[in-house]
UniProtKB/TrEMBL annotation:
Domain Fumarylacetoacetase-like C-terminal: 77-280
Keywords, comma-separated and alphabetical: Hydrolase, Metal-binding
Family annotation (SUPFAM superfamilies): FAH
PANTHER family: FUMARYLACETOACETATE HYDROLASE DOMAIN-CONTAINING PROTEIN 2A (PTHR42796:SF4), FUMARYLACETOACETATE HYDROLASE DOMAIN-CONTAINING PROTEIN 2A-RELATED (PTHR42796)
Family: Belongs to the FAH family.
UniProt GO molecular function: hydrolase activity
UniProt xrefs under InterPro entries: FAH (IPR051121), Fumarylacetoacetase-like_C (IPR011234), Fumarylacetoacetase_C_sf (IPR036663)
A Pfam cross-reference name: FAA_hydrolase
Protein name as it appears in the record: Fumarylacetoacetate hydrolase family protein
């Protein structure tokens, strides 16, 4: 299944630009708010198991510009740094470095076709697979981890490198939480829709130039391991997001360094999910 946020309403995607409004289809059993769908994930699954849906049942039409973040108000946003070996190498981390955990504050989240103001001339790109939690859990085992996942989506961990790296200690969370610095979408995709939930092509580009290209199977810590480690400390809540880390190819690690500029369009794609497009302007 693909679940979209269309103008602030929860919609089941059933075709190109076509969907079913979940509140209307469920006669109010499922609320209109996309956040409520993941917050009551088992209720949603029970309802959808009995719903006959197809493009012929669509009662909503939409364009990419109508889409908002699939999960607009998560209670917790976890973000993982240096979780691909090649990215750890390019960033200068030693081979035994553990992936670092920080947060992107939820107010930075935006949808799959956003225009983002650049606060400085050192804003970088980081395409990431984003996991959406569907079931509450603490001390979740690796074997049970995927049972706690509602779905996945495409994300960009936009990063303002000057404020991140100035001073003696990095400021990950603030530098990655400017307005619009968390594009996500185009929709939430349940794992059963994916060709291989543990091995998806992931990339981002500007125009004809590919900036990053890898596969999610190259993560140092895969999704089950991330869920096990995070839930050993924090109770995971339905609707929580996990930005799972970025491959190599970020602008700050290039020689010479390269950063995003006004009027550029950054396209971020993950196999089986789709693409998000972010344009930039001067703040």
């Amino acid at each position: 299944m693909k679940l979209a946020n269309v103008g602030g309403r929860a919609v089941l995607v059933v075709g190109e630009g076509a969907g079913i409004d979940l509140e209307r289809a469920s006669q109010g059993r499922i609320g209109p708010d996309p956040q409520d769908v993941v917050a009551r994930w088992d209720v949603f699954l029970d309802f959808i198991s009995r719903l006959r849906y197809s493009p012929e049942n669509a009662d909503v039409s939409f364009t990419p510009a109508d889409l908002g973040p699939p999960v607009p108000r998560p209670s917790q946003v976890f973000a993982i740094g240096v979780n691909y070996r090649e990215h750890a190498d390019e960033a200068g981390y030693p081979p035994d470095s553990l992936p670092v955990t920080f947060t992107k504050f939820a107010s930075c989240l935006t949808g799959p076709q956003a225009e983002v103001a650049l606060p400085t001339d050192t804003v970088d790109w980081e395409v990431e697979l984003v996991v959406v939690i569907g079931r509450r859990g603490r001390n979740v085992s690796r074997d049970a981890a995927w049972d706690h996942v509602a779905g996945v989506t495409v994300g960009q961990d936009l990063s303002e490198r000057t404020s991140q790296l100035e001073g003696s200690k990095p400021q990950y969370s603030l530098a990655k939480s400017f307005q619009g610095f968390g594009p996500t979408g185009p929709w939430l995709v349940t794992p059963d829709e994916l060709p291989d939930r543990d091995d998806l092509a992931i990339s981002c580009s500007i125009g004809d130039e590919t900036l990053q290209s890898s596969r999610t199977s190259r993560m140092i810590y895969d999704i089950p391991e991330l869920i096990a480690r995070l839930s050993a400390v924090c109770e995971l809540q339905p609707g929580d997001l996990i930005f799972t880390g970025t491959p190599s190819g970020v602008g700050n690690a290039r020689t010479p360094k390269r950063f995003l500029t006004p009027a550029e369009e950054l396209v971020s794609s993950i196999e089986g999910i789709g693409s998000i497009r972010t344009t930039f302007r001067t703040a």
